Amino acid sequence: MPTLVTATPNPGPIAETLAWGVQIAKLNASITGSTVWFLSDCYGLFGQVTWISIGASAAAADAAAAALAAHPEYLAAVDEAGPLFVPGSGRQLLARRVA
After folding, report:
1. DSSP structural state of residue 24
2. Is residue 96 in some structural domain?
3. Which of 7, 48, 87, 95 keeps 20 to 30 A from 16, CA to CA?
4. Number of domains comprising the chain
5. Phi first, then psi: what are they for 90, rounded to 5°?
6. DSSP assignment, residue 85?
7. Which domain covers residue 31, as residue numbers?
8. What is each CA distance from 65 to 9, 11, 15, 43, 77, in whole angstroms?
9. pLDDT digits over 1-13, tens only?
10. 10 domain residue, yes or no
11. 61 C-beta neighbours (distance < 10 Å), count
């Protein structure tokens, strides 16, 4: 099951935001063992970025979320990124395939 996180960067530090996005995707993958893609959206909100993590099941997604929530390096990296993004623009989703 894929989990998705989206956020909209603040105007200005786009290069810094993209570099941080790559770094946090790699950190997420190393902590969870999941495949993590970092994408710059082509449509929708201007500048929006998306991380997609692929897990085997909803239980695997929950386990990955718990591992991230307990990892001090990951939490510190997320805290440091606050100024890079539009406040309130972050969203977290879990998708399931229906066909």
Report:
1. H
2. no
3. 95
4. 1
5. -75, 140
6. B
7. 2-87
8. 23, 29, 27, 27, 15
9. 889 999 999 988 8
10. yes
11. 20
80/90 Cα distance (integer angstroms) = 15
Two tokens, residue 25: 């995707």
CATH of the domain at 79: 3.30.70.100
For the segment 45-92, what is each residue's pLDDT rounded down to a tens digit? 888 999 999 988 889 999 999 999 999 999 999 999 999 999 999 999
Give per-residue pLDDT as tens, 19-38.
999 999 999 999 999 999 99
Strands 35-40 and 2-7: unpaired
The answer to whether residue 99 is domain-embedded is no
Work out the mean pLDDT of the chain and round it to a whole number.
93
Question: What long-range pairs does 35-40 form, CB within 8 A, spacing at least 24?
Answer: none
Sign, Cα dihedral of 8, 11, 15, 19: negative
